From TrEMBL:
This is DUF2520 domain-containing protein. It comes from the Bacteria. SUPFAM superfamilies: 6-phosphogluconate dehydrogenase C-terminal domain-like, NAD(P)-binding Rossmann-fold domains. Residues 122-246 form the DUF2520 domain.
Length: 255
């Protein structure tokens, strides 16, 4: 039985709490948050606290807070030589105060409290300073998913950067698409099958090989027509920038 103390009250912490509570091999013994009101409603299920000095003895302490708060919390922990891990994608292992043994338990996924998470589909990226601690994190991760990877801090930062491109930026483009469809009085739902097909094709075909559209075709008249339709200067610049990137990637003639 692996005893866990969870620190943090945000989206990641809430989803970890929900999943840990379902796993027989894990005993979630305490939940800390600076503002206890954010987790108070769970006090009938798990002991909650907003005092670091009251933390219980555990096998792993998981800090699931904003990147900027990780070091402050880890340096304020009232004990030494314990396994303390964070859940950040873009934060080095060394941010954990060296008085404790550091690790990383990073789920590669976007989290919001309202959305259901299927942990068996989520990659968990692990790092630790010694083999025994890594084994603990592997045991924990494999109780949640088969997609477990041993990744160092430099690799994890690169993964986080890539995730911003394939997730955050793409979602922003969906937002722009929603604005454009509303301006044209077109329901955005008609694009959902196209989005699903593009995403599904990634499972079998490299994205570079499946690129379509006017930029890869060198269709200057269509590109010019699109630019004329765009009224927002920022949207126009985004269109131009991505078009240039596609042309450069595929060796097409510059516009």
């Amino acid at each position: 039985m692996l005893k866990i103390v969870l620190l943090g009250g945000g989206n990641v912490a809430h989803h970890l709490f929900a999943q840990f509570s379902k796993i027989p091999e894990i005993e979630l013994i305490q939940w800390y948050n600076r503002s206890v009101s954010a987790i108070q409603k769970f006090d009938s299920i798990i002991p909650v606290t907003n005092k670091l000095e009251n933390l219980k003895q555990a096998d792993v302490y998981i800090i699931a807070v904003s990147d900027t708060a990780i070091h402050e919390i880890s340096s304020s922990l009232p004990f030494k030589d314990q396994l303390v891990v964070h859940t950040s994608g873009n934060t080095d292992l060394k941010v954990i105060d060296p008085k404790n043994r550091a690790g990383v338990f990073y789920p590669l996924q976007s989290f919001s409290k309202e959305k259901q998470i299927h942990w068996n589909e989520i990659p968990l990226l692990l790092e630790a300073t010694n083999e025994k601690d890594l084994e603990k994190l592997q045991f924990l991760a494999k109780s949640m998913t088969d997609k477990v990877y041993l990744i160092n801090s430099k690799q994890r930062s690169s993964i986080h950067l890539t995730a911003v491109f394939v997730n955050n930026f793409v979602n922003h483009l969906y937002s722009i698409g929603t604005d454009l469809s509303e301006q044209a009085q077109i329901p955005f739902d008609i694009f959902i099958p196209l989005i699903k097909q593009t995403t599904k094709s990634l499972e079998t075909t490299p994205s570079k090989a499946s690129q379509t559209g006017p930029a890869i075709r060198g269709d200057k008249s269509t590109i010019e027509s699109h630019l004329d339709q765009l009224k927002d200067p920022l949207h126009k610049e985004i269109y131009k920038s991505i078009t240039r990137s596609i042309i450069n990637t595929h060796g097409r003639e510059k516009l």
